[in-house]
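Let us practice reading a record.
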Amino acid sequence: MRGRALQLGVLGGLCFLALPADGAGPVGVEVTGLAGTGSNPIGGAINPLLFGLGVRAGAVYKSAYAGLSYVDYFGGYLTGGSDLGAGEHAWTLGAEAGYTFGPEIVKVRPFLGVGDFVLTLGNPGAAGSIVDPASTSGATSGHVYVEPGGCVLVLVSMFVVGLDAGVLVLPNVRFGGTQESTYASAVAHLQFGLRF
């Protein structure tokens, strides 16, 4: 828990550091809340990306965008069978860069995100887990992710409403004692926030 609080604190601090100084030019700051979901990256019985909430914050200079995002996915649990109660959830924390274009109100932004994908096992014995099935409850497994994607943003006054979609790619992941492989998940988030 302390690790997540620290990560959110760093994200908040970076938002304040991104505020434009006098004479910095046309720098804008965006802070949005996220709500979304993803497909199961490994195709197992439990989807660790079932539903998540998070935050995205970044700076826009002219049309270039750079920022950070954090999403905590609540995941899922098995409700029957021998693995009753087994569950997984995941969170992502990463940096994003993109380019914004379009008319004044509706903007399109392709982006590339890179960061940490952390999966936590809620109960030992979860079938189809990236975390070793012999692990104890609370075991975690961290992986680097790459996420190419894009978003459509509607800007009204200082409010931002949008939808993003991307592919969360987990390269070189060892699954169930097999050789390393690459896994991918389609992800999408609604966002609502402010632009200064």
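A brief commentary: DSSP finds one helix and eight strands in the chain.
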